[in-house]
Write a structure and sequence with these properties.
The complex is a heterodimer. Chain A is of the alpha/beta class. Chain A has 4 helices and 5 strands; from the N terminus they run ββαββαβαα. In chain A, strands 1, 2, 3, 4 and 5 form a 5-stranded mixed sheet that branches. In chain A, 31% of the residues are buried. Chain B is 33% helix and 29% strand. Classes of the chains: A alpha/beta, B alpha+beta.
Chain lengths: 124, 134
């Protein structure tokens, strides 16, 4: 929990709260590789600040991957920046194999449906 | 009405999100609505960060939560170039992955998830307001 005074300007706001915990930009990526199959579990928020990290992760690890499984069990939310990264991964995987998303919460599925991504992505 | 002013830089997004979330939690906003509002903050604040200013500038976010039913009203203000994101045409969401152009998706998500989205340019400021009842 952080405490902010209304109307006060925070120029050099720390990105850690009073307990030293990182505020906000929390996303964790856990990978499991089995031959040509890569499972990526994403935890936290896939937003404007964290999406570039996932993009870099895909750039670094998708080579030689034919079966990409994304586990969204612990994904809290996804913004358009996150959707952009998913779309580009989907396009890349369409050429060489497949991409599947699993454990999608109803809240995140609603975002996929509203944006038409439910028709583009494959769920398991 | 509570407000926060930060530099219009995406590194400040967590600060703005935390600020609004704390106020929503005070009013026992359901988690789903909070998530939708968080996504809207991401889209609207990052828009200001990327497009409003040539160099640097500030963004102010005002929050007011009250009424019956309880309604969150969040206003984003910047003094950058006039820009009405609501004029952007909605993306064609029926296209295949290969044909999809991702532009306009963010504001489209905001329009779909909020009850109201209003834009005005007043006193040299872009003023974008979202409303969501819960």
């Amino acid at each position: 929990m952080i405490y902010l005074q209304p109307g006060v300007q925070y120029e050099e706001m720390s990105t850690r709260d009073v307990y030293g915990k990182e505020i906000g930009t929390i996303m964790k990526i856990n990978k499991i590789e089995e031959g040509n199959k890569l499972t990526v579990a994403i935890e936290g928020r896939l937003d404007t600040t964290t999406a570039p990290e996932l993009e870099n992760e895909f750039k670094a690890s998708l080579e030689n991957v034919e079966d990409l499984l994304l586990d969204f069990e612990k994904l809290d939310y996804i913004s358009s920046a996150g959707l952009r990264v998913l779309l580009s991964a989907q396009k890349q995987m369409n050429k060489v194999g497949k991409m599947t998303i699993t454990n999608v919460s109803p809240e995140i599925m609603e975002i996929f449906e509203v944006t038409g991504f439910s028709d583009i992505l494959t769920f398991a | 009405m509570k407000e926060i002013t930060v530099e219009a830089d995406v590194s400040k997004l967590p600060v703005v999100t935390e600020f609004v979330d704390a106020l929503l939690e005070e009013k026992e906003c359901p988690l789903k609505v909070q998530m939708q509002i968080d996504v809207a903050i991401d889209e609207l604040f990052s828009n200001i960060c990327y497009y409003a200013y040539d160099s640097s500038g500030d963004a102010t976010v005002c929050v007011n939560i009250d009424g019956e039913p309880m309604t969150a009203e969040i206003t984003f203000k910047d003094k950058g170039r006039p820009y009405d994101p609501l004029k952007k045409p909605d993306p064609d969401i029926t296209l295949s992955a290969e044909e999809r152009d991702i532009g306009g998706l963010g504001i489209f998500m905001v329009k779909k998830s909020m009850d109201e989205v209003l834009y005005e340019y007043k006193d040299g400021m872009n003023i974008l307001t979202i409303r969501k009842a819960f």
